[in-house]
Design brief:
2 strands
Length: 422
């Protein structure tokens, strides 16, 4: 699944995580201060609107990101050549960057909330005179951000679709290269054709949303920390430093742990469904060529196993969905509950209320990645188990050949010499 697309996956992902963490630390400790000294510091007044993307601090970050990616990619290009290097390394970096841009659009919209809704409050309460030109100018600012979000979102979706298909193509090439040894393995055709397709499409959903969640946390936690200076009290808790950040983390951690506990049986049930479906499909395929196979009693028995597996899964999803939907309903009003003492005391404006709830929802939603993606994660786990079992069977089939390694990572050198079919 991974060695076919990434160079030496275990080391690659570990190095990518460590390099990313180092790059973030260096950015805040050295990169951003250095940019300010070189003339790339923030302007006197915050830029609200699409102009924030060509302000000097943003351009300086672009240069820093390009340098960090260039060093990392060049190192892997030299140390571990791979046929899908451009897609797996540079493509992943591009997805990371455009996801960051999308998150920054959300930050820009959140920054727009404050002055706009304060202006609306002033107009409605007759505390300040607001002209139609001012009102529509602010709406035009939002429209610029919205158009940028649509453009980047569409282009990102187009690129990610090609990226994921290249990953599927890499898996297909890798498994097909071992077809003479594995064609007799149960479900080999299905796993190469269907499971690789499902794995890639599921990774598209989960991977992009995971990267978006991480980038949202990086972008919005400083925003929420700054806004926490206006919110110092929490219901039932009282005075709390960084109240908004702590509330978002605590509530999201509770939801994630709660739903993981409730849904602990679901991955195994999904895997069982894949097994009984494969057995039923296999008998039908054999019946196409052999009249002695796929007899009605046999099919009834196999389909009975399919029925039992699905009905068991449906039962367990009943209580899981009760827990999930109940939590999400409470989640919809959690930010308003947290802001209750400040709203009652009248210490925040309407614009600040919208700005805080917007940032709070972004951070809370990012922390709740597992909550919102749990059903998809369960499906991916079942696909992963099937493909891992298939790869284990490949290893056993190749064990008789001393020239082949059973560890896919150790086959990377031979794989690196191939040319991708793309």
């Amino acid at each position: 699944m991974f060695v076919s697309f990434f160079p030496r996956p275990r080391l690659f992902f570990l190095s990518a995580a460590l390099w990313s963490a180092l790059a973030v630390l260096v950015w805040y400790a050295v990169g951003r201060p250095l940019g300010a000294r070189l003339g790339f510091g923030p302007p006197p007044q915050p830029v609200i609107g699409i102009g924030m993307f060509w302000a000097r601090p943003f351009l300086w970050f672009d240069l820093y990101f390009l340098a960090a990616v260039g060093l990392f990619a060049a190192a892997w290009r030299l140390l571990a050549p791979h046929p899908y290097w451009r897609w797996s390394v540079l493509g992943s970096a591009l997805i990371l960057y455009v996801t960051y841009v999308q998150v920054e659009v959300a930050v820009g919209v959140n920054n727009w909330y404050g002055p706009f809704w304060d202006m609306v409050q002033a107009a409605l309460s007759h505390t300040a005179r607001i002209t139609a030109a001012q009102y529509y100018r602010e709406l035009a600012t939002f429209l610029g951000l919205a158009l940028l979000a649509v453009t980047v979102g569409v282009l990102t979706s187009f690129f990610v679709s090609h990226y994921i298909f290249r990953w599927r193509a890499a898996m297909n090439d890798f498994y097909a290269a071992h077809w003479p040894q594995v064609r007799t393995i149960e479900g080999a055709a299905q796993r190469i054709q269907e499971d690789t397709m499902r794995f890639s499409s599921t990774m598209e959903d989960l991977g992009v949303s995971f990267v978006g969640s991480v980038m949202t946390l990086i972008a919005f936690i400083p925003v929420l920390t700054k806004l926490s200076t206006h919110i110092t009290r929490l219901p039932l808790v009282g005075e709390t430093p960084n109240a908004l950040v702590l509330a978002a983390i605590a509530w999201s951690a509770f939801g994630t742990g709660f739903l993981a506990l409730v849904g602990v049986k679901l991955p195994g049930l999904q895997f069982r469904i894949q097994r009984v479906e494969a057995a039923y499909r296999k008998e039908l395929v054999y019946g196409e060529d052999d009249p002695a196979r796929a007899a009605p009693p046999t099919l009834r028995e196999l389909f009975g196993s399919v029925r039992g597996a699905y009905f068991t899964l449906y039962f367990h999803y009943v209580y899981f969905n009760v827990a999930r939907i109940f939590y999400l309903q409470l989640d919809a009003i959690f930010a308003i509950v947290v802001l209750g003492p400040s709203v009652v005391a009248g210490v925040i404006t309407f614009g600040l209320l919208n700005q805080i709830t917007g940032a709070f929802d972004q951070v809370r939603g990012a922390f709740q990645y597992l909550v919102t993606s749990w059903s998809t994660i369960v499906e991916l786990q079942s696909i992963y188990k099937r493909l891992r079992a298939f790869e284990a069977a490949i290893g056993e089939s190749l064990a008789a050949d001393p020239g082949q390694s059973r560890d896919p990572d150790l086959d990377a050198a031979a794989w690196a010499g191939r040319t991708p079919n793309s």
